[in-house]
Amino acid sequence: GLRRRLSAAWMLTSILLLVGAVLSILKGFDWEEASMLLLTACLLLTFRRSFYRPSRLLELPFSPVYLIASICVVGASIWLLLFAYQDVPYSHQLWWQFTLDADAPRGLRSALGSAVLLVVVSLTWLLRTARPVIKLPDAADLDKAAEILKASKQPDGGLVLTGDKAILFHPAGNAFLMYSHRGRSLVALYDPIGPTQQRAELIWQFRDLCDVHHARPVFYQVRAENLPFYMDIGLTAIKLGEEARVDLRRFDIDAKGKEMKDLRYTWNRGGRDGLSLEIYEPGQAPIDELKVISDAWLTGKNVREKG
């Protein structure tokens, strides 16, 4: 936990060191051991800011009701064990009796094993880093992203306007990237949107955000010219597919030759089936209608949106 810079591990270790120092004094005034524990605790207190990662310990519902319920469960378990074996006198030898009819020793060992297992599982769960909290953008954030998008030459960033992804802005306010989470990963969609000189800084900013939450940084569908930026933060490029780019100034579906034959067939078949093509200006796309179609397709395929 301390190696992973977890705030809960820092808190738990500091408390144990202080308690250990007090107990060292009480058990026989062992000031040497107590001094070492206090010195270690002071060092941890000095470097408090280095343990910045949140963990589940700070999210547990520590309330009077929760505490009373926990005490009742533990107390009831102990009472049931004592009640069931009240006619069996206790001795240290009970722990080492392994016979078919030795129910009391088996009960003691089971209780101890359950307690140890509970402690291990609880500590493992408590010291895990908290899942990143994804805050969806409000209207002001979307307006700010739209202004940055208009000033850029990256139309694929228009998906930010759907509002279903978190937005990370550059401190200068002239660049952003959109992301969401998947398991223990934070996944950014496309390269950062904005001036080229801000992209590297924003990529590092996203890397720092992932570091705070102990999450894996992932960038999906980035351009080759930006790969050095991602290599700098220790990522590896994996090819998942290709992107088709068409020069519209030279494109002609009616051009003679075999190159356009298959495309012409698909186009004509679509026309016969009642399909049509319509191009909308920026900001005029029928998002609500497209969402209905998308939701119907997802329902028919029994899948959910991946974006």
TrEMBL record:
One of its GO terms (biological process) is phospholipid homeostasis. Residues 151-307 form the Phosphatidylglycerol lysyltransferase C-terminal domain. One of its GO terms (molecular function) is phosphatidylglycerol alanyltransferase activity. GO terms for cellular component: plasma membrane. The chain crosses the membrane at residues 34-52, 64-86, 106-127. The keyword Transmembrane applies. This is Phosphatidylglycerol lysyltransferase C-terminal domain-containing protein.
